[in-house]
């Protein structure tokens, strides 16, 4: 996920997870950890470094783009519009916005398309929704917990058969069943070479961490099939500040490779983005196919005054070619009280750069811009 769900010095979700050893479920699991390795050789195939810096007529990005919206997800649909959803500070509903332009999301009307249940499952901690179009239907993946057990967080799916996600009926397809009934969240889905995958964060029984990253094939948009493979677990110091966390995965396919970003550590100013990389021709269900960066690729920056950047996704600019990085961050380093109750993680966007070897160049989180002239 990547919301401020940290509860220091309380029996909160991460603290309770430490050392947990819950019974395994019926699904087969193939443990496999991607080890740090040297960077791959330069990819001889074309890469986007020749893309224009800015498409004519595209204004500079407004930042923060959307206030008090964490774990942002922006997708550009075939209708040419951008669709936005994110975690709200109250953790009690799922919202949507849309706009013809990225900057337009800042002031676009926001609709509540689903609310948490008053009792039972899907009643608390509504976190990190993602909107995906699959097989002619809309799906929203999100995390939630029962009202009666707010840290028993699992992954859930909504479905809407209407062509317009603001219309029609959102049907609750239920929980995505993983190998264990343990803390799980931050599901994202992508298709590659004819196969649909789910990647998510989950606590593995018996492991001394909070969450690792997992991948599995999907039988349909709400059902996993085949082995569930561990891709990454917190191992470097920068992944273990406050909590041992890998979460908030997202995929970008470019230059003959599959890039998988994720977020690590506690959700204060230590929160940062890591990167896994696989060759596009490799078996994505083989953990050995993935190379893990030994250093974070996107971190807090004092010079721009942005802290705790994370839970990112990617979209494209209005020109249809320029890659755009979407993430949340705070405008201050020190947090008063429990980070869970600090609402000021704002959605931000900036151009994603590319290095000569065809790997992404995240740069630093950009400074705030004025709203005027957007």
Automatic annotation (TrEMBL):
Ranges in a coiled coil: none
GO molecular function, one term: hydrolase activity
Pfam families per record: Glyco_hydro_43
Signal peptide: 1-36
Region Disordered, annotated ranges: 31-63
SUPFAM superfamilies noted in UniProt: Arabinanase/levansucrase/invertase (SSF75005)
InterPro entries (alphabetical): Alpha-L-arabinofuranosidase, Glyco_hydro_43, Glyco_hydro_beta-prop_sf, TAT_signal
Domain of life: Bacteria
Keywords: Glycosidase, Hydrolase, Signal
Basic and acidic residues composition bias: residue spans: 42-56
The family this protein is said to belong to: Belongs to the glycosyl hydrolase 43 family.
Protein name in UniProt: Glycoside hydrolase family 43 protein
